[in-house]
Amino acid sequence: MSQHFFRVLAYAGALAAASCTTAPVRSAPAVGVVSTTVAPGPAPSASVTAASPLPSLAPGATVTVAQVVALALANGPQVASAAAARAVAAAEVDGTRAWANPEVDLRAGRARYRDGSGRVSVGGIELRQPVTLPGKRGARIDAALAEQQVVARQLELERVEVEVQVRAAALRLAVADATATQAQQTLGLAQQLTAAVARRVQAQEATPADLGRARLDELTAQLAADAALRTIDAARRELRSWCGDALPTTFTLMDVWPELPAVLTPPAALAPLAAGAQAEIAGGPRAALRAAERAAGNAALERERRAWQPELSAGVTADRASDTNDVGVVVGIELPLWNRNAAGIAGAEAARAGIMARAQTQRLAEARAAASAWQAYESARLTAVALATQALPAASTALEVRLRAYAVGEASVIEVIDARRTATAIAVELLSARADAARAELDLRSVLGVAPAPGAASTTIPTPSGVQP
Predict the structure, then answer these.
(1) DSSP class per residue in 65-106
(2) pLDDT of residue 188
């Protein structure tokens, strides 16, 4: 992206050194916090269960984005919370599968003969086992299992969302670092220009006003460089917050910037969305979650429809009377005379209708978001390609010409400053366009529910069905 800019800086340094004796130049603070070199890294775990916490990295460690994602998934609270909810759902399934405990009734007392001739001890014991009809019990278990699937799909989606958010935070850090690098380059060029103008003023080849303009330009560049360094600190803290402090305060981040191919076909999953069709993005975790929610709504309705069925109980009883010992069998049944669970059934039907309506709303929202993200990606990508292949080389060439002309007295310092600002502005626009494209790609992946391919910068946006553009 900045090869031409680097070449201009090198030429400016040579020009300043050749003008006269070297004057002391204020040193710029080092950046070097984030490297945008693409390096493969380990793939994050595909398991949807709670991962064991990973050990903290040593200060100054070099990590890839995939490693940071793995730290966030293992040490961050977001996935841990979703995994805990899944454990709760599994416990509820076990609870619905468990049989009711047996009941024991004990009776003891004294009986008196009606003629008053005496008293006698009486007592008894009754053991009952509550029994739920198979259809009613099965409906309860199915509803609990369906809710467990909903929680499992939520955990899958949470993992994708966390990965997308962590990669977005890594991108912000990379953008902050690249901005700081550009600001340092600009500051270095401004300092060299100030030194060169100062030497020309001493040789009476330039005016003090030219030196004042150069110093003002250097001060502006210094302020921008200082602000860029502060942005790096904030971006680093944000990225560390996703990892539960497993990421050290100092680290070098790699594998951040996706490559921007000259031509990129939209994913096949976007074709019906771009056409305005209300199609499901099949295969993604969002679609899987909606399917699980629909199944859970149906299972809950079936559970409520069977809830009115009577509960049974069966047992044995033994009684001791004054002159007999009685043993028998007892069977009990609930009589659903006053309540056949009409309210529960109506509530379940309304809840299922709400699930269907929300699913439709989410599909429409995802269709709009996917189309918007793709358009934003394409716009930013085309802008970045044009700036990198046309505008930046032209601006760098213009700056070289102005520097050569200034060296022989054929250009003013204002012309050099204007050319330098133009080249810097285009470089900043190029960085912004690349960042916008990367952010739009992350937005699209979030909508599709597809995490970026681990270990390498992506050149395509995979669809949930696995179709590559």
Answers:
(1) HHHHHHHHHHHSHHHHHHHHHHHHHHHHHHHHHSPPPPEEEE
(2) 87
